[in-house]
Design goal:
- The chain is built from twelve helices and no strands.
- It has 248 residues and is mostly helical.
Length: 248
């Protein structure tokens, strides 16, 4: 990687504007002290940084792409729920064959676990295993009542989920390339934030609470914890929804 493409900051690209917003919030609250320390922090610095923040945010997470990825993600979860709902009848058909086949050996248990986890890659992989087993034991399953329509539907889900996953990856890969080509803009924004952090740590060296507001590692950790909490809450919601549907 060329020197011009190296990052000055040690966080995810998409986290930089979030951390930047937190820094600007703290700076705005303490701006009088900063200006007293140095005139370089006087207006129009704050307004200029807010403009840069909006530009950086649009670069790493453009609203149009964010909405599109959200829409695709919603489609993925809808399809995964449908796959999970199709797995339960399939389990009954396997049991009705009265053979040595079991839901576990057939791959149904693993498929449902992947569905409950919302892991699209695992769902695709486990569904392929189930579809292979359906093909290998088709006559027995048909005698148990499995229809061609249900077989076709399960096979179609593999293609559909693979396509949705590819769409997500293409959008993210393209955005990563665009961001990489504009690292200079992100580095420039970070360098200005770094000046605020430098002086903030000087001004509040004896105030632990405020010192954290001007410490990059602490802000990075705060953003990471917030992201993790949101992800866990989302997983719990999805899990509750799946459980409720299964029980019904």
């Amino acid at each position: 990687m060329s020197e011009s493409n190296q990052r000055s900051y040690s966080c995810k690209d998409e986290d930089l504007p979030i951390i930047g917003a937190l820094i600007l919030q703290s700076f705005s609250r303490e701006k009088t002290l900063f200006i007293t320390f140095s005139n370089r922090f006087a207006d129009p610095l704050e307004a200029n940084l807010k403009t840069e923040l909006a530009s950086v945010n649009e670069l790493v997470s453009p609203e149009s792409e964010t909405l599109l990825i959200k829409k695709i993600t919603e489609q993925i979860y809808t399809e995964i729920e449908l796959v999970d709902s199709m797995a339960d009848p399939l389990k009954a058909y396997v049991d009705l064959t009265k053979s040595q086949l079991t839901p576990a050996s057939f791959g149904i248990i693993a498929l449902r676990a992947a569905c409950n986890n919302g892991d699209i890659t695992a769902v695709i992989d486990k569904l392929k295993v189930v579809n292979t087993n359906i093909t290998n034991h088709l006559s027995q399953l048909k005698e148990a009542g499995l229809t061609d329509e249900k077989v076709s539907s399960l096979k179609t889900k593999v293609s559909l989920l693979t396509d949705l996953k590819t769409q997500q990856q293409d959008i993210r890969s393209n955005r990563a390339l665009i961001v990489q080509e504009n690292i200079g803009q992100l580095n420039s924004f970070y360098d200005k934030l770094a000046d605020i952090l430098l002086v903030g740590k000087t001004l509040f060296k004896d105030n632990p609470a405020k010192l954290k507001e001007f410490t990059f590692s602490a802000l990075k950790s705060q953003v990471g914890q917030s992201r993790s909490t949101k992800k866990n809450d989302s997983t719990k919601t999805d899990s509750t929804t799946t459980t409720t549907k299964t029980e019904s």
